[in-house]
Structures are given as C-alpha cells and as structure tokens.
Amino acid sequence: MLRKLGVAHLKVLLIYLTVVTILRWEFPHSFGAFFDLVGLWVGGVIGLGLLGLDRVLYVYVIRPHEQLSQQIQEKVRTQHWKEALETLLARRKEQYHLAFRNGIFALVYIPVVFFAVTSSSGLFGKGVALGVMVHLLHDIWRDQLKNPSELNSWLFWMVSRDVTLEEQKIFVWVLTAAFGMVSLILL
Prior knowledge:
Order of helices and strands: HHHHHHHHH
Number of domains: 2
Shape: globular
Structural class: mainly alpha
Largest sheet: none
Distance between the termini: 35 Å
Number of strands: 0
Radius of gyration: 18 Å
Strand content: under 5%
Oligomer: single chain
Number of helices: 9
C-alpha cells in the first residue's frame, strides 16, 4: 500500500514538473541554471513528502491519546519503522483532523505558494511550495472523484456546518484554478 500510494502521488508530481519544465524550458546556459532546474525537481519531491508531517503531528501532538496514535508510538519506540508507517497509511482514514489537510489550510496556503513563486530567486523553494500543493490537490481530487462524502470528513472538518456537494465542487475548482494561476506565474 505504501508503494502504491507513493507512486500515485509521485506520478502526479512528475507530470506536473515535466509540464512546467517543458513550458519554461530554455537551454541551461550554465551549470548554475541546470542545478537550479534540478532544485525545482528536488524541492518538489521534498514538498510532496512534507505534507506527511501532519500525520506525525497528529500522532504526537494533536491526538496522542487515541488508540492509533499509541499504536504508532509503540512501533516507533520499538524501532519497527516500516510497520509504523504501514499501519499509519493503512489506517489513514481514521486521521481526519489533520493540521495541513483541510480547507482552511488550502486557502491560506495558496498565498504562501504565490509568495514563494514570486519572491524566491531559486527554484528549490518554489519546488517545495509547489510540491506540497500538488500533494494536497491530488488527495482532494482523488476523494472528490471517488468518494465526495469522505472528502467532506477531512477537508471541511473545521467548518461548523455541512458542506453541500455543489459547494464542495466549487471549492475544489476554485482551489485548482488558483493553483493553476500561480503555476502560470512560474512560467
């Protein structure tokens, strides 16, 4: 499961970075320009993984008393790293109050991505910011297409009312369009 989940996210990121690289391509006139482009890709992969930190925060800070959190903590304490990660991913649907996977974070993060794209001189920082958003959008679209009610449980848990399917679709499209516009700035 770990491999399947990681490959799906990585495929989406690689497609995104390939499109960005092709659209902004100019033959690197120096090794510095080439390594800057490599920085975009490395930053994207790091950003893709950074979103996983909210699961760690959930286990150790947000809800350390829950059964899943205690089980993960025990596996880590006994240095069964792979089992801890596999258990965390297998039971990831139990973690729905995550710090970085909610609608409020997504809305606040778009200006952060805009700031990173417009003010960072190197491509590494831009790649990190974009990688986080690609991961988040992948998760949002996956659940929007496969199980919209599940998307409500983790994306809109901070909203004090039920979000309708129509409102959910509007949110997803607006978020995607905003990310697309920020991506165009990168080109």
